[in-house]
Write a structure and sequence with these properties.
It is a single chain. The chain has ten helices and 15 strands. It folds into two domains: 141 residues, Periplasmic binding protein-like II (D-Maltodextrin-Binding Protein, domain 2), CATH 3.40.190.10; 110 residues, 3-Layer(aba) Sandwich (D-Maltodextrin-Binding Protein, domain 2), CATH 3.40.190. Strands 3, 4, 5, 8, 9, 12, 13, 14 and 15 form a nine-stranded mixed beta sheet that branches. The longest helix has 28 residues. By secondary structure, the protein is α+β, with helices and mostly antiparallel strands. InterPro entries: ModA/WtpA (IPR050682). This is Substrate-binding domain-containing protein.
């Protein structure tokens, strides 16, 4: 019997803090174990392009706080959780969080917290839901969250491109060109798609939005993502696409970790600002912990972490 050497099954220490291989540096999850709050991790088993749960973090068994987080700041969660645990050490090692698109998190909430990924199914009821302000208000109105919504940070859009910008993309109007292949968020469950469409309309009217989201989709030069904060940078690095519109923070993260990614700024008059907000889930198993997270997320300590990635603190408009 022949045995094939494999690096798939490794001690947890090597999986979490070892030097990443070329493949693991390109494929998600990109944090090399940092976004895992579990204290006892046991066997390390991970193959980034084949067997990997990039957007599920921590131990789902009996968490003391569970967070359903819109995925586009997955990279900020490890330092946020670490800072939160400094202030509330009773939660250390017992926080679970997910970072999938907000619309999919709602579907999971409607399913009682149950989610299936590949061959595995588990259930975690959320304590806090974090997404865009309008999405949070919508779920409050639907009875899935408890008022009030707590806004805490803002973000703007950018065009994510390969390092060096080989297609010489200068702005949103270039995205309609036939030779530019795009990764674009799916409007069905990725809320950012609607904000992108608003910016496309500002830059080139309905014709530009139609070109990007209909004409190019029909001819195959636009591909819709299911989870844009993972797929857009990955597809660019795999040369499947040339560009995609994302939140600026996502491009900055990719640049900070040394991936061959860059970005093209969108002028203020064409850009769209997101307001991030959160609320405690109705029937939250750990409502007090959820309230403590809401208090923390708008604190100077938390906002300083967001600012590393280009977010700005939310400031309420004067009445």
């Amino acid at each position: 019997m022949a045995f094939i050497a494999s690096s798939v099954i490794v001690p947890v220490e090597a999986a979490d803090v070892g030097t990443p291989t070329a493949a693991s540096s390109v494929y998600p999850p990109w944090q090399h174990g940092a976004n895992n709050d579990a204290l006892k991790r046991g066997l390390g088993f991970d193959e980034p392009d084949a067997d990997n749960l990039a957007d599920f973090h921590g131990d789902p068994q009996h968490p003391a706080l569970s967070l359903f987080v819109g995925g586009n700041y997955f990279f900020a969660m490890a330092p946020l959780v670490a800072q939160f645990e400094k202030q509330y050490p009773q939660y250390k090692g017992h926080i679970y969080w997910e970072t999938i698109p907000p619309g999919l998190l709602v579907k999971q909430m409607e399913a009682g917290g149950t989610v299936t990924v590949g061959n595995m199914t588990w259930t975690v009821k959320p304590d806090v839901y974090l997404a865009g302000l309008n999405a949070v208000k919508k779920q409050i109105d639907a009875g899935n969250l408890v008022a009030p919504a707590t806004p805490y940070a803002t973000n703007n859009l950018t065009i994510m491109v390969a390092a060096g910008n080989p297609k010489n993309i200068t702005g949103l109007t270039d995205l309609q060109k036939a030779d530019i292949k795009l990764a674009m968020p799916n409007p069905a469950f990725e809320g950012v798609a609607h904000q992108i469409q608003a910016s496309l309309n500002k830059a080139g009217g309905d014709a530009l939005s139609t070109a990007v989201y209909k004409t190019k989709l029909d001819d195959g030069s636009t591909q819709l993502t299911h989870i844009h904060h993972r797929q857009t940078p990955l597809w660019i690095m795999q040369h499947k696409v040339d560009a995609g519109v994302t939140w600026k923070s996502e491009a900055l993260f990719q640049e900070q970790v040394g991936h061959p990614i860059s970005h093209v700024d969108i002028p203020d008059e064409q850009n769209t600002t997101a307001i991030y907000a959160a609320a405690v889930a109705k029937g939250a198993p750990h409502a007090q912990a959820g309230e403590q997270w809401l208090h923390f997320i708008k604190s100077p300590a938390a906002l300083s972490i967001f600012e590393r990635y280009g977010f700005k603190p939310y400031v309420a408009a004067a009445k």
